[in-house]
Specification:
The chain is built from 4 helices and 5 strands. By secondary structure, the protein is of the alpha/beta class. The relative contact order is 0.18.
Length: 134
C-alpha cells in the first residue's frame, strides 16, 4: 500500500484517495488579520479553481467549513498538516505548514488580498518556496 494511503487509513479518510489537492486554511479572521467575508472570498476562489479539493481547517478555526463548502471534503480531525505530506498538491495563502511538503507540490494563493499583513506573509512564503525550488 502506498504511504499516503496508509496515512489516510490511519485517520479513517480512505475515501479521499482520489483527491489530490489539499487546502490548508489559516485563522485569519480569528486573529483579526482580515474579516471573515474577505477570508471566505479567498477560500471560495480556491475551491472554485479546484472543485475536487480537501479542506484542512486550522486547529484554531471557529467557522465550520463543511457548512460553508458543503460540496467539498473537510477534514474534521485535528492533526499536524505535515502528516499529509504524501497527499499531492498543496495550496495555502501564507501557511508555513506547507514547508513540510515537497516544493514542487506547493502553490500559494494567486489572487488579491486586502490585508497588507497577510499579503506580506504570502510574499515571504513565496520567496521561501522559490528558494527551495532553486
Amino acid at each position: 500500500m502506498e504511504d499516503h494511503l496508509k496515512i489516510l487509513k490511519i485517520f479513517n479518510f480512505s475515501n479521499l484517495e482520489n483527491i489530490d489537492v489539499l487546502l490548508i486554511t489559516q485563522a485569519f479572521s480569528e486573529d483579526n488579520l482580515m474579516d471573515l467575508n474577505e477570508e471566505m472570498r479567498i477560500y471560495s476562489e480556491i475551491v472554485e479553481k479546484y472543485p475536487n479539493i480537501i479542506i484542512k481547517p486550522h486547529p484554531r478555526k471557529v467557522k465550520d467549513y463543511s457548512e460553508i463548502f458543503p460540496d467539498n471534503t473537510v477534514l474534521d480531525k485535528h492533526f499536524p498538516a505535515d502528516w499529509l505530506v504524501l497527499m499531492g498538491n498543496i495550496i495555502a495563502i501564507s501557511s508555513t505548514a506547507v514547508l513540510h511538503f515537497p516544493a514542487s507540490e506547493i502553490e500559494t494563493y494567486w489572487g488579491d488580498i486586502n490585508s497588507s499583513h497577510v499579503e506580506k506573509s504570502r510574499e515571504a512564503l513565496e520567496c521561501l518556496i522559490k528558494g527551495l525550488k532553486d
